[in-house]
Amino acid sequence: MDISVAYEALTKDAQVWDGVGDELGAMGRILSDVHLSRGAFSFAAMDVADRYAEVTLQVAALLSGGETAASDTASALREVRNAWEGHEQAVSSSISEMWEPGT
User: How far apart are the first and last CA of the chain?
Assistant: First the structure.
C-alpha cells in the first residue's frame, strides 16, 4: 500500500477555507450594521416587520456558524498536514537509525 500526501494541496485548501470563513464573517458584520426598525414598515405590515427581524437573526446565525465551520475546516486540514509530516519524519528517522549505508 502506497500512501502519498500532497502537503501543499492541504495548505492551499486550508487557505481557501480561511478565505471562505473571512467572507462569511465579513457578510455577518455587514448584516449586523443593517438596522430596519418596525417603524420603517407600514402599520399594516407589522407581521412583515417581525418576520424580517426573525429572518435577519436566522441569516446572522447561519453566517456565524458558517464562519466557524470554515475556520474549523481550515484548522483540521492544517492538523492533518502536521500529523502526516510528523509521522513521515518519525518513520524516516526510525528507518535511517536501522539502516547504515555500506553494511
Answer: 28
Task: List, in order, residues 6 or more apart from 13 with CB less than 8 Å away.
Answer: 77
The conformation of residue 37, written as its DSSP 8-state character, comes to -
Q: State the residue for C-alpha cell 502537503.
A: 7
- State how far the Cα of 35 lies from the Cα of 29, in Å rounded to an integer: 12
DSSP code at position 67: H
pTM of the model: 0.74
Q: Cell triple for residue 27?
A: 457578510
Splitting the chain (103 residues) into consecutive groups of 10 residues, what average pLDDT does each group show? 76 97 97 86 84 92 98 97 84 67 60
